[in-house]
Amino acid sequence: MITLRLAIALVLAGSGCLFMLLAGVGLLRMPDFLTRMHASSKAATLGAALVVAAVAIALWDGAVALRALLVSLFLLITAPVAAHAIARAGYISGVPLAEETVVDELAGRYDQDTHELAGTAAGPTEAP
Amino acid sequence: MSPALAIAGYGLLALLTVAMALAALRLALGPSLADRVVAFDVVAAAGVAMAALAAVLWQAPVLLDVALVLAVIAFIGTVAVARYLEGKVRR
User: Fold this and answer.
1) What average pLDDT does this structure show over A96-105?
2) Are B71 and A45 contacting, i.e. CB atoms less than 8 angstroms apart?
Protein backbone atom coordinates (compact mmCIF):
# COMPACT_ATOMS: atom_id res chain seq x y z
CA MET A 1 0.00 0.00 0.00
CA ILE A 2 1.54 3.23 -1.16
CA THR A 3 0.28 6.33 0.58
CA LEU A 4 0.08 9.75 -1.08
CA ARG A 5 3.04 10.92 1.03
CA LEU A 6 5.26 8.09 -0.22
CA ALA A 7 4.09 8.66 -3.80
CA ILE A 8 5.15 12.31 -3.59
CA ALA A 9 8.49 11.26 -2.11
CA LEU A 10 8.96 8.71 -4.90
CA VAL A 11 8.27 11.30 -7.62
CA LEU A 12 10.70 13.78 -6.00
CA ALA A 13 13.42 11.13 -5.60
CA GLY A 14 12.91 9.91 -9.16
CA SER A 15 13.26 13.36 -10.70
CA GLY A 16 16.25 14.03 -8.45
CA CYS A 17 18.00 10.87 -9.65
CA LEU A 18 17.25 11.78 -13.28
CA PHE A 19 18.82 15.21 -12.70
CA MET A 20 21.91 13.53 -11.19
CA LEU A 21 22.14 11.27 -14.24
CA LEU A 22 21.83 14.32 -16.51
CA ALA A 23 24.65 16.00 -14.60
CA GLY A 24 26.85 12.95 -15.09
CA VAL A 25 26.13 12.77 -18.82
CA GLY A 26 26.74 16.52 -19.23
CA LEU A 27 29.99 16.27 -17.31
CA LEU A 28 31.21 13.56 -19.66
CA ARG A 29 29.95 14.95 -22.97
CA MET A 30 30.52 18.71 -22.80
CA PRO A 31 33.55 20.08 -24.69
CA ASP A 32 35.32 22.30 -22.15
CA PHE A 33 35.60 23.14 -18.47
CA LEU A 34 33.04 25.96 -18.22
CA THR A 35 30.36 24.17 -20.23
CA ARG A 36 30.91 21.08 -18.08
CA MET A 37 30.36 23.21 -14.99
CA HIS A 38 27.28 24.70 -16.61
CA ALA A 39 25.84 21.22 -17.06
CA SER A 40 26.89 19.68 -13.77
CA SER A 41 26.82 22.27 -11.00
CA LYS A 42 23.13 23.16 -11.27
CA ALA A 43 21.78 19.72 -12.20
CA ALA A 44 23.81 17.87 -9.56
CA THR A 45 22.83 20.33 -6.82
CA LEU A 46 19.14 20.21 -7.68
CA GLY A 47 19.29 16.42 -8.02
CA ALA A 48 20.89 15.81 -4.65
CA ALA A 49 18.69 18.39 -2.92
CA LEU A 50 15.54 16.82 -4.43
CA VAL A 51 16.54 13.31 -3.34
CA VAL A 52 17.30 14.44 0.21
CA ALA A 53 14.02 16.39 0.38
CA ALA A 54 12.22 13.25 -0.81
CA VAL A 55 13.91 11.33 2.01
CA ALA A 56 12.67 13.94 4.49
CA ILE A 57 9.12 13.45 3.21
CA ALA A 58 9.43 9.65 3.22
CA LEU A 59 10.73 9.51 6.81
CA TRP A 60 8.19 12.10 8.08
CA ASP A 61 9.40 11.91 11.68
CA GLY A 62 10.24 15.14 13.49
CA ALA A 63 13.95 15.11 14.27
CA VAL A 64 14.98 12.79 11.43
CA ALA A 65 13.04 14.63 8.71
CA LEU A 66 14.40 17.91 10.02
CA ARG A 67 17.96 16.62 9.67
CA ALA A 68 17.24 15.58 6.07
CA LEU A 69 15.79 19.02 5.34
CA LEU A 70 18.92 20.55 6.87
CA VAL A 71 21.12 18.54 4.48
CA SER A 72 18.97 19.65 1.55
CA LEU A 73 19.17 23.31 2.59
CA PHE A 74 22.92 23.05 3.15
CA LEU A 75 23.41 21.67 -0.36
CA LEU A 76 21.36 24.49 -1.88
CA ILE A 77 23.32 27.15 0.04
CA THR A 78 26.88 25.87 -0.48
CA ALA A 79 26.70 24.69 -4.09
CA PRO A 80 26.63 28.17 -5.71
CA VAL A 81 29.56 29.27 -3.54
CA ALA A 82 31.66 26.25 -4.49
CA ALA A 83 30.70 26.55 -8.17
CA HIS A 84 31.61 30.25 -8.24
CA ALA A 85 34.95 29.63 -6.54
CA ILE A 86 36.01 26.79 -8.82
CA ALA A 87 34.80 28.51 -12.01
CA ARG A 88 36.78 31.63 -11.12
CA ALA A 89 39.85 29.58 -10.23
CA GLY A 90 39.55 27.60 -13.45
CA TYR A 91 39.27 30.70 -15.63
CA ILE A 92 42.17 32.43 -13.86
CA SER A 93 44.42 29.37 -14.10
CA GLY A 94 43.90 29.47 -17.87
CA VAL A 95 41.83 26.39 -18.64
CA PRO A 96 41.45 26.32 -22.45
CA LEU A 97 38.02 27.16 -23.88
CA ALA A 98 36.32 24.99 -26.48
CA GLU A 99 36.96 25.67 -30.16
CA GLU A 100 33.27 26.47 -30.61
CA THR A 101 33.46 29.41 -28.17
CA VAL A 102 31.91 32.50 -29.80
CA VAL A 103 32.82 35.26 -27.35
CA ASP A 104 34.99 35.62 -24.24
CA GLU A 105 34.12 39.03 -22.82
CA LEU A 106 36.64 38.76 -19.98
CA ALA A 107 39.60 38.20 -22.31
CA GLY A 108 42.07 41.06 -22.03
CA ARG A 109 40.02 42.85 -19.40
CA TYR A 110 41.29 40.88 -16.46
CA ASP A 111 44.28 41.91 -14.37
CA GLN A 112 46.17 38.71 -13.50
CA ASP A 113 48.10 40.42 -10.66
CA THR A 114 45.32 42.13 -8.71
CA HIS A 115 42.52 39.76 -9.81
CA GLU A 116 40.31 42.71 -10.66
CA LEU A 117 38.59 43.83 -13.82
CA ALA A 118 40.85 46.25 -15.69
CA GLY A 119 39.12 49.40 -16.85
CA THR A 120 36.31 49.51 -14.33
CA ALA A 121 37.95 52.29 -12.31
CA ALA A 122 39.30 54.43 -15.15
CA GLY A 123 36.56 53.96 -17.69
CA PRO A 124 36.10 51.09 -20.11
CA THR A 125 39.12 49.81 -22.00
CA GLU A 126 38.97 48.88 -25.64
CA ALA A 127 38.29 45.28 -26.45
CA PRO A 128 41.36 43.57 -27.92
CA MET B 1 8.31 -1.31 3.52
CA SER B 2 6.43 -2.85 0.64
CA PRO B 3 8.42 -4.80 -1.99
CA ALA B 4 7.34 -2.40 -4.77
CA LEU B 5 8.78 0.56 -2.87
CA ALA B 6 11.97 -1.33 -2.11
CA ILE B 7 12.40 -2.20 -5.80
CA ALA B 8 11.82 1.43 -6.75
CA GLY B 9 14.37 2.53 -4.15
CA TYR B 10 17.02 0.15 -5.42
CA GLY B 11 16.28 1.27 -8.99
CA LEU B 12 16.93 4.87 -7.96
CA LEU B 13 20.16 3.76 -6.26
CA ALA B 14 21.19 2.15 -9.57
CA LEU B 15 20.49 5.42 -11.44
CA LEU B 16 22.65 7.30 -8.92
CA THR B 17 25.40 4.71 -9.36
CA VAL B 18 25.42 5.31 -13.13
CA ALA B 19 25.60 9.08 -12.55
CA MET B 20 28.47 8.60 -10.10
CA ALA B 21 30.29 6.33 -12.56
CA LEU B 22 30.01 8.92 -15.35
CA ALA B 23 31.36 11.63 -13.05
CA ALA B 24 34.14 9.30 -11.89
CA LEU B 25 35.10 8.75 -15.53
CA ARG B 26 35.48 12.51 -15.96
CA LEU B 27 37.43 12.56 -12.69
CA ALA B 28 39.87 10.05 -14.20
CA LEU B 29 40.05 11.71 -17.64
CA GLY B 30 40.67 15.26 -16.42
CA PRO B 31 42.26 16.94 -18.31
CA SER B 32 42.80 19.91 -15.94
CA LEU B 33 42.74 20.03 -12.16
CA ALA B 34 39.64 22.25 -12.23
CA ASP B 35 37.80 19.62 -14.30
CA ARG B 36 38.66 16.99 -11.73
CA VAL B 37 37.39 19.15 -8.87
CA VAL B 38 34.04 19.70 -10.62
CA ALA B 39 33.79 15.96 -11.29
CA PHE B 40 34.57 15.22 -7.66
CA ASP B 41 31.81 17.60 -6.64
CA VAL B 42 29.31 15.60 -8.68
CA VAL B 43 30.62 12.31 -7.24
CA ALA B 44 30.17 13.71 -3.74
CA ALA B 45 26.65 14.97 -4.53
CA ALA B 46 25.74 11.50 -5.83
CA GLY B 47 27.20 10.05 -2.63
CA VAL B 48 25.05 12.36 -0.51
CA ALA B 49 21.93 11.35 -2.42
CA MET B 50 22.87 7.66 -2.10
CA ALA B 51 23.43 7.89 1.66
CA ALA B 52 20.07 9.64 2.11
CA LEU B 53 18.25 7.03 -0.02
CA ALA B 54 19.94 4.23 1.90
CA ALA B 55 18.74 5.81 5.15
CA VAL B 56 15.16 5.21 3.98
CA LEU B 57 15.76 1.82 2.34
CA TRP B 58 17.54 0.29 5.32
CA GLN B 59 15.59 2.19 8.01
CA ALA B 60 18.85 3.67 9.33
CA PRO B 61 18.50 7.41 10.01
CA VAL B 62 22.16 7.47 11.10
CA LEU B 63 23.07 7.54 7.40
CA LEU B 64 21.63 11.07 7.21
CA ASP B 65 24.56 12.22 9.34
CA VAL B 66 26.87 10.53 6.84
CA ALA B 67 25.17 12.53 4.07
CA LEU B 68 25.58 15.78 5.99
CA VAL B 69 29.27 15.21 6.72
CA LEU B 70 29.91 14.19 3.11
CA ALA B 71 28.25 17.40 1.87
CA VAL B 72 30.31 19.54 4.27
CA ILE B 73 33.60 17.88 3.35
CA ALA B 74 32.91 18.14 -0.39
CA PHE B 75 32.16 21.86 -0.05
CA ILE B 76 35.26 22.59 2.02
CA GLY B 77 37.43 20.53 -0.32
CA THR B 78 36.16 22.32 -3.43
CA VAL B 79 36.69 25.78 -1.95
CA ALA B 80 40.15 24.80 -0.66
CA VAL B 81 41.32 23.57 -4.07
CA ALA B 82 39.82 26.66 -5.74
CA ARG B 83 41.79 28.93 -3.42
CA TYR B 84 44.92 26.85 -4.05
CA LEU B 85 44.50 27.15 -7.84
CA GLU B 86 44.07 30.93 -7.64
CA GLY B 87 47.03 31.35 -5.30
CA LYS B 88 49.28 29.28 -7.56
CA VAL B 89 48.69 31.70 -10.45
CA ARG B 90 49.14 34.82 -8.36
CA ARG B 91 52.84 34.11 -7.65
Assistant:
1) 82
2) no
Q: Does A7 touch chain B (CB under 8 A)?
A: no
Q: How far is B12 from B3, CA to CA, in rounded Å?
A: 14
Domain boundaries, chain B: 3-90
Which residues does B70 contact at the CB level (< 8 Å), separation at least 6?
Answer: B44, B47, B48, B51
Q: Is A40 on the interface with B (CB under 8 A)?
A: yes
What's the predicted TM-score (pTM) here? 0.87
- In angstroms, the CA B83 to CA A67 distance is 30
- Please write the tens of the pLDDT for every residue from B20-45: 999 999 999 878 899 999 999 999 99
ipTM of the complex: 0.89
Peptide linkage before B31 cis (omega within 30 of 0):
yes
The phi-psi region of residue A97 (left if phi > 0; otherwise alpha if psi is between -120 and 50; otherwise beta) is beta
Q: What is the DSSP string of A55-111?
A: HHHHH--HHHHHHHHHHHHHHHHHHHHHHHHHHHHHHHTTPPPPTT----TTTTSEE
Note whether A20 contacts B33, CB cutoff 8 Å.
no
Q: Which pLDDT belongs to residue A122?
A: 46
